[in-house]
Amino acid sequence: MPESMSLSGHTQMVGVMGWPVEHSLSPQMHNAAFAALNLDWCYVPLRVHPDHIAKAVRGLAVLGFRGANATIPHKQALLPCLNWIDPPAQKIGAANTLVIEAPAEGQEPPRLLGYNTDAHGMLAALRSHSLVPGQNIIHRVVVAGAGGAARAVVWGLAEAGVTEVILLNRDLPRAQNLAAELAPTLCRPLPFSTDALVESVRSADLLINTTPVGMWPHCEDSIWPDSTPMPSNLAVFDLVYNPLETRLLAQARQAGALPVDGLEMLVHQGALSFKLWTGLDAPVDVMRSACLQSLR
Ligand code: NAP
């Protein structure tokens, strides 16, 4: 907790629900933003078992929380807990931001609203490296993973106008459902294997890792095999941001490919969540610095 933070009965509470949640930098990022804007708000990590997401959401409302983020593996499971879902989140089929509308005096329960800020964060991260899907060099994309984050990624890529998405997932029916629901003409689902990955990137401009492979504490893991050099004309975007340079990104750097880390996406998805809760523009530079400081 920042030294300057003092909690009271007036403090507005938000948090992040995850399993695990220990890797999340969102508490440091949002608390730094609240402190920078002198807001009496506090953001806490919430370790929620997958079986208890609905109870946890009801609990947050009862406890007077103003909202929460949902991270791995809760983004899809959050939807049935909500009273209203923003159309992009509905289409994506996953929400990463819960807004709990403060009830009027004597009126309860509060309304639970769901949004998805991941697609916005993903496109902002790519733009920060001059990668604009559907324009310049980004037409064909390989996406590894078909979970909650992948749904936002594929939806964002389809909205941006890319030509083709190859979607690799261990659980093939999950990838097939994602493709059928979000981008049937664009998206080719295939079973995940290192051979399929290597073969798919041959004709791709961008590889996006939406699996947690390589995330702390399993930092030595990578979806890319050591035995095969990565194409040097590829851009490689890893949604994992802890560590900042994952093994996959180190492999990309060593091959002369363009590595894009998950930090900018984290900051921009967080900035939009911040605005949804507080109504204020987020101090993006403060949020980025807080994350970088925590990662050192
Ligand atoms: P999720 O819903 O649990 O989905 C995880 C996906 O990864 C599933 O498709 C799963 O495949 C696949 N997967 C898991 N372990 C794998 C392995 N060992 N090999 C191959 N595939 C594997 O999780 P999520 O919410 O999408 O989050 C995924 C990652 O993205 C997390 O690390 C999260 O921190 C990160 N993320 C970062 C940002 C950011 O702002 N930078 C935003 C969102 C998410 P199966 O379906 O076959 O199980």
- Portion of residues in beta strands equals 15-25%
Count, helices: 10
> What proportion of the residues is helical, as a percent range?
25-40%
Computed Rg: 19 Å
Cross-sheet strand order for the largest sheet = 2-1-3-5-6-4
Largest sheet: 6 strands, mixed
- SSE succession: EHEHEEHEEHEHEHEHEEHEHH
Q: Indicate the structural class.
A: alpha/beta
What are the distinct ligands in this entry?
NADP nicotinamide-adenine-dinucleotide phosphate
What spatial form do the alpha-carbon principal axes imply? globular
What's the short version?
The chain has 296 residues and is an alpha/beta fold. The protein has ten helices and twelve strands. α1 packs across α10 and α9 (263-278) crosses α10.
What does this structure look like?
There is one protein chain. The relative contact order is 0.14. It is built from ten helices and twelve strands. It is of the alpha/beta class. A six-stranded mixed sheet has the order 2-1-3-5-6-4, sandwiched between helices. Strands 9-8-7-10-11-12 form a six-stranded parallel sheet, with helices on both faces. The site of NADP nicotinamide-adenine-dinucleotide phosphate has 29 residues, from helix 4, helix 5 and helix 9.
